[in-house]
Design goal:
Radius of gyration: 16 Å
CATH superfamily: Cytochrome c-like domain
Shape: globular
CATH architecture: Orthogonal Bundle
Number of domains: 1
Distance between the termini: 41 Å
CATH topology: Cytochrome Bc1 Complex, Chain D, domain 2
Largest sheet: none
Strand content: under 5%
């Protein structure tokens, strides 16, 4: 088999498996998002430039950033305490919800 085809197939399989493993429950994420709404808006669209829009962000980006706040890699006086109690499952669910909007 051609090496380019093997590389393409391998990359595709890795991409699909990573997306499948990272999938959260958007319905559970919607429930969990109640505490996010004060800053990020009821539909994930912030009313000010002070807080980012979460609506439509990439799933992987949201997971990475929320975990960074939770784990202390990123620090913010408001966001760090909000993320501190989130489990990996909570974060996957929130990311599934907001990325799907």
């Amino acid at each position: 088999m051609n090496n380019k085809i093997v590389i393409l197939l391998t990359s595709s399989l890795l991409f699909l498996s990573a997306n499948t493993m990272a999938a959260g429950d958007a319905a559970a994420g919607k429930v969990k998002s109640a505490s996010c709404m004060a800053c990020h808006g009821a539909d994930g669209t912030s009313a000010t430039d002070m807080w980012p829009n979460l609506k439509g962000q990439k799933n992987g980006y949201l997971v990475k950033q929320i975990k960074a706040f939770r784990d202390g890699v990123r620090k913010d006086p408001m966001m760090s305490p909000m993320a501190a109690a989130l489990t990996d499952e909570d974060i996957d669910n929130l990311a599934a919800y907001y990325s799907g909007l």
